[in-house]
Amino acid sequence: MQGKHFLAFDLGASSGRAILGTLQNEKLELTEIHRFENQMQQINGHFFWNIFSLFSELKTGLKKCVQEHGVQPDSIGVDTWGVDFVHLNREGMIISLPFAYRDSRTDTAMDDLFKEIPAEEVYSQTGIQFMQFNSLFQLFSMVKEKSSLLEITDKILFMPDALNYLFSGKAVTERTIASTSQLLVPGEMKWQHPLIEKAGIPASILTDLVEPGTIIGSLKEEIGKETGSKAVPVVAVAGHDTASAIASVPAEGDDFAYISSGTWSLMGIESPQPFVSAQSLEMNYTNEGGVEGTTRFLKNIMGMWLIQECRRAWMDEKAYSWDEMVQLAQTAEPFKYLINPDDSSFLNPGNMPEAIKAFCRNTGQEEPESHAAIIRCVYDSLALKYRFTLEQLREVSKKPIRCIHIIGGGANNRFLNQLTADATGMKVIAGPAEATATGNILVQAKALGALASLREMRKVVRNSFPVDEFQPQAQLNWDEAYQRFTQL
Predict the structure, then answer these.
(1) Residue 331 falls within a domain, yes or no?
(2) Do residues 432 and 438 make contact, with C-beta atoms less than 8 angstroms apart?
(3) What is the pLDDT of residues 80-107, one digit of tens each?
């Protein structure tokens, strides 16, 4: 295989993969090298990530790439979910498993912080959507508990930075992953020190910030011996998986909205500047870092989690494939039942179908009884939520939006793609499905000089991956359904 080779490690909350990208003649080819499971570990009533097991799997991926596939990558890079972090002591040792964002220790942290610092002040200084698991609240909960772990912490590193550190020995913080923490100045490369100090968080635990596409060091000699790899560059890619995904949107201009569709649906726009106002606070939008200094102005929407959890709840009764669930939805009456996908009752209910029935009951609707009706309810409601979010994005940004790009695993759901086009009245362009790994690889390529810009990266995506287009069809009364949806 000629061309340049880049190895992306893409870690999600339930699985991780090593994906080899080969860039040649402005086209990218992807090969899955290694796949492994990831799950939270419950220990003494708390939830953690096993970072040592994850790192072992990444090394296995590198070893397989070199020894089984016979390809020496030109560089490596890691992306993960946001907010979670590891603790290092003065000797540079990891001194605890990192807490997982679904851990209950932050249940009251937001309210506790707002008693000391008003929510409006926190938002004006960070521009980040309030979610109880943001790193700010994780750290503040440790301050309030007088955590002995925090007392002996010399530095914290977010998950992709920690894995880069284990590969290279270099401790730095990449900007896009740092932006999820609610500790950064919006749209800038600096920590929000006044807020950090007011919250009682020791600023000394934070490391220097770097832009995505920075070569932070080389693979350690000991890991080279273990895997058979040369001392290749370790690149700080867009460490937040959503930032990597957005970098691979195959857009030609900037007049688009995107939906990064997976467990969560991240819907937003790409902007040269953040939007931080009373209006964006009221709507609870976030301003996270993107590639080339861009801001990802977006909303976190409960996405395929709703469908995934329904499927899990029904597993003993019927093990549906994803396609079977879509086919069932198509047999059900549209708009008969609607939910707000972002209602807190759906965050981790244990039994999602029962939670959906309860929401319908509590909002004066009949309860959906059949599996088909429940699935249709979720898909209709997601499409209507996308319309609602699109209207908010237009209102706040005043930006012309002419199409919606859907990327990530959800881009394969043709039924929901069509519903989204119909609900919004917008052309939908779906693909690539492997958006995060693609963005990770292309940022590595830019770091090594194989590509010059985000525009060139997106051209490679258009050259390399087919997309599906969905035009809006006026077959159903979406306006009437939308009026009902906005009253929920």
Answers:
(1) yes
(2) yes
(3) 999 999 999 999 999 999 999 989 999 9
CA Rg, the chain, in Å? 22
394 and 269 inside one domain = yes
- Rounded to an integer, what distance in angstroms lies between the CA atom of residue 243 and that of residue 248? 9
Residue 201 lies in domain:
4-241
Name which of 296, 263, 346 is nearest 13 in CA terms: 263
Q: Indicate whether 225 and 349 sit together in one domain.
A: no
pLDDT at position 348 is 82
Please tell me whether residues 268 and 174 are part of one structural domain: no
**Catalytic entry in 103, 241, 380, 422:** 241
Looking at the structure, tell me whether residues 374 and 418 fall in a common domain: yes
Asked if residue 264 and residue 180 are part of one domain, the reply reads no
**Would you say the C-alpha torsion 271, 278, 258, 433 has a positive or negative sign?**
positive
Is the pLDDT assigned to residue 263 strictly greater than 90? no
- 108-137 pLDDT per residue, tens: 999 999 999 999 999 999 999 999 999 999
Residue 375's closest CA among 411, 333, 340, 326?
Answer: 326
Assess whether 141 and 217 both reside in one domain.
Answer: yes
Distance between start and end Cα atoms, the chain: 55
Domain membership flag for residue 446:
no
**Beta strand extents in 240-381 (DSSP E only):** 256-261, 264-271, 286-289, 295-302
**Which pLDDT belongs to residue 474?**
82
Residues 264 and 233 occupy one common structural domain: no
Collapsed DSSP state (helix, strand, coil) of residue 328 = helix
Domain CATH code at residue 122? 3.30.420.40
Look at residues 103, 104, 131 and name the one whose alpha carbon lies nearest to residue 302.
131
The mean predicted confidence, pLDDT, of the chain is 97
> In the prediction, which pLDDT does 61 show?
99
Task: Determine whether 241 is an active site residue.
Answer: yes
